[in-house]
Amino acid sequence: MLKRNLSAVLLSLCFIICSCGKSEPKIISVKKTEQEKLLHKSSNDLHNALVYRKQQEDKAITNYINSMSLQEKICQMFIVNIDGNRKFAPVEKMSLICAEDDSYIVPGGYLFFGFNLADTPEEVISFTNSIDTYCINNNITPPFLSIDQEGGKVNRLRRLAGLYPSAEEISDTLSLDQAEKLFIYQAKQMAALGFHLNLAPVAEVCTDTNKDFLDGRSYGSFEKVLNYGKLNVKKFENNGIGTVLKHFPGNSNTDPHSGLPEINLSEKDLFESLKSFEELIKENPSGILMSHARTTAVDKETPACLSSVWVTDILRKKYGYNGIIFSDDIFMGALSKNNYPPEKAVLMAVNAGIDSIMISEKRFASMAKILYNKAIEDNEFVEKINAAIRRIIEFKIKKHILQFDINEDENLNGWELQPVNPDTSHKRTEDFYEYRKSNNNLFQE
After folding, report:
1. What is the residue-wise DSSP string for 15-26?
2. Which of 206, 307, 374, 445 is most buried (most C-beta within 10 Å)?
3. Distance between terminal CA atoms of the chain?
4. Which residues contact 174 (CB under 8 A, 6 or more apart)?
5. Any bridge partners for residue 324, and if so which?
6. Do the beta carbons of residue 153 and residue 166 sit within 8 Å?
7. Which tens digit of pLDDT belongs to each residue from 110-145?
8. Alpha helical stretches, state H, 34-96
9. What is the CA angle 60-64-66, rounded to 5?
10. Separation CA 389–CA 76 (nearest Å)
11. In what order do the strands lie in the sheet with 242-248?
C-alpha cells in the first residue's frame, strides 16, 4: 500500500509540474489557483511520504542491529584477508570468541590480495558469488569485498582488468575528461567482479617529506589531488564502488610496514597539509583510512589510527565526517615494533573511534575476543561498537549488499533488511568484458 501511495504522489507531482510548464493566461489574484493548491498539497504528501520512508528505514536498521548478538556485531568491525580464491569457506568458529556459539564467523569485510584472485574474470566472479551464497544460506550478514586498486604499482587487478596507470601518471598524462572515463570503466569492472570498496584514492599531496614512500601514488600538487581526487570519488561512488581516502593525517618517508612515521610539522603547517582531505571529505567518500603516523604538533605520543584526538575530535567533529573510519593494518611494524602490539592496538582503535579494524591476517577471532571481553563489562564500549556497526550497515545498504524488504501487510513486521542476491554470473561477466574493452580503447584513442 505504501509503495502504491508513494508512486501515486510522485506521479501526480510530475503531472502538475509538467502542466505548469505550459503557457497560461496571466491572472493576478491574492488567492491561490486550484492548480497551485493541488501542487502544494501534493508537495506536502510527497514530503510526508519521504519522511515516513526515512523513519521506516531507520527503524529497520535499528531492528537489524538489535537482532545481532554482541559477538556478531564485533565481527562486523573487522576487515581481514580472505582465504583462498576458488570457493569460499570461513576459517574460524564463533566459539573462539564466545564459548556457547559454535557457528562460523565472517567479518564485516574482506580484503583481497593478488593471491586471492584467480586467473580469469569468470573464476573471480564465481568466487565472490560463493561468498554471498554461503552467507545467505547461513543467515550471516554478507561482508563487503575490498581491494587496493590505486593503479600503477598498487594494482591488484593488473592481470584481469584494463590498463590503470598510477595516480601520478594519470594526472600528468590524462585530461580530466579522460580520467573521468577511466574511473568509470575501472569501477564498472570492479563491480562486475563482485567488489564493493576500493582502498583508494591517496589524498595526500606529494611533498619532499613523503614522496619516497608514496612513490607515484599521489596525484601530485594540491590542485591535482583536488581535481583528480574529486573525480575519482564521484565516479567510483556513482558506479557501485565505495572509495576510501588515505592516509589520514599523512605519512613521512618512513614505510609503516617496518617503522613508525613521524610528521614533524608545526600545527599550522600540519593542518595546511590536510586541506586536500578537508576538501575531498565534502564529496562523501565511503571511508577514510588512518595512517600509523605520529604528529609532533597533535597528540604526539599516539599513532593517528589509535588517537581519539585525530579520529574523533578532528575527523569526526572538526571535519564532520560521518562515513566509515578504517585503521591501517594493526599488525604492521609501525605499531608492533613500537609498544603497540595487536592486542593493545585493537582496544585503542575502538576507543579512539575506529569503525573497521584492518588485519592482513586471515584469522581475527583472538582480536575479536579481546573486544568481546571488554564489551561485556563496559557499556560505554558497547555504545562505540553500536555506532560503528550502524555506519557499516548503512554502507552495505548504500552499496546494495543489504536492501529493505517492505511488507505491505500491516500485520507483519513492517520494513526489514535482507541480503541482496547478486546479478547472475553471466551478466556480470558480459559487463566486465565490455568495460575492460572500453578501458583499453581509451589508451588507443
Report:
1. HHHHHHTS----
2. 307
3. 52
4. 165, 182
5. 287
6. yes
7. 999 999 999 999 999 999 999 999 999 999 999 999
8. 34-66, 70-76
9. 115
10. 7
11. 324-326, 287-290, 242-248, 197-198, 144-147, 109-112, 78-81, 357-359
